[in-house]
Amino acid sequence: MHAWLCTNPTGVEALTWTELPTPTPKAGEVLIEIKAASLNFPDLLIVQNKYQMKPPLPFVPGSEYAGTVVAVGEGVKHLQVGQNVACLSGTGGFGTHTIAPAALCMPLPPGFPAVDAAAFIMIYATSHHALVDRAQLKAGETVLVLGAAGGVGTAAIQIAKALGARVIAAASSDEKCALCTSIGADATINYSKENLREAIKTLTDGKGPDVIYDPVGGDFAEPAFRSIAWRGRYLVVGFASGPIPALPFNLALLKGASIVGVFWGEFAKREPKANAAMMAELAQWYGQGKIKPVIDRTMPMAQLPQAYAHMGSRAVIGKLVMVN
């Protein structure tokens, strides 16, 4: 097998395409032949030693992938050799094969392509957990999605629409705004051209959004929060822009608003039954055509450094997927 090996987490340039012995799965594990792996923001942070999870060295990055089970370890009952699965294990995806905990593998129904499957779990699980569980979003409410053309942003638009909400999508270019409209957004804000607060006020008749979905952080967090509706819920999903914002607590008091943390990975560990039910619902929604990952492009696994550069340019719309 071959994989992109990180021996020193100083950045993407330190990754090397390396031949490694193909491992044998231990009890509770499976060996997966990887067909596709998506590139997510944590995959950049982890090779820069900036992510909250710091795997022992050396490691293979690639948190999310899909492929075919080629061997199973002792005690694995729900997966068989030849079965197609998707997995989000945190590492291991950027290679030809990987060992994965069987408990983290999602069996794929027929007709679920590997590219879509590799781009599915992280964005839809995060967005469903955020909007349904944490925000308790109801039909008829208004959702503002920041960074709406990214992976979790596009998933949030689709899930909010499936729940019957009105969606305002905020993104940094006209092209990204057009993409958001094409997947169901009711209105868009190009915040590289428009004043965010004024645009929100206009689009909500001064009421403000009931739910704000923020995977970006940075400079837009405070003006967005100042625009939130009475009893609004501000979802803290991530900090893709880099800086972690500090919000004045008096704003929450004045609006009767909630600042709600969203950490899907911890939810999945602490509440596995609820997470499994959520994933089953999402797979059903995919089969019904309610949700479908937006794929920016696919690239050969050998071009991973170029893929990282493309992601770093902020030009990705939806998800970037590496294929073997």
UniProtKB/TrEMBL annotation:
This is NADPH:quinone oxidoreductase. PROSITE patterns: QOR_ZETA_CRYSTAL (PS01162). The lineage of its organism: Bacteria, Pseudomonadati, Pseudomonadota, Betaproteobacteria, Burkholderiales. GO terms for molecular function: oxidoreductase activity; zinc ion binding. InterPro entries: ADH-like_C, ADH-like_N, ER, GroES-like_sf, NAD(P)-bd_dom_sf, Quin_OxRdtase/zeta-crystal_CS, Zn-ADH-like_protein. Coiled coil: none annotated. It holds the Pfam family ADH_N. PANTHER family: QUINONE OXIDOREDUCTASE-LIKE PROTEIN 2 (PTHR43677:SF4), SHORT-CHAIN DEHYDROGENASE/REDUCTASE (PTHR43677). Residues 11-322 form the Enoyl reductase (ER) domain.
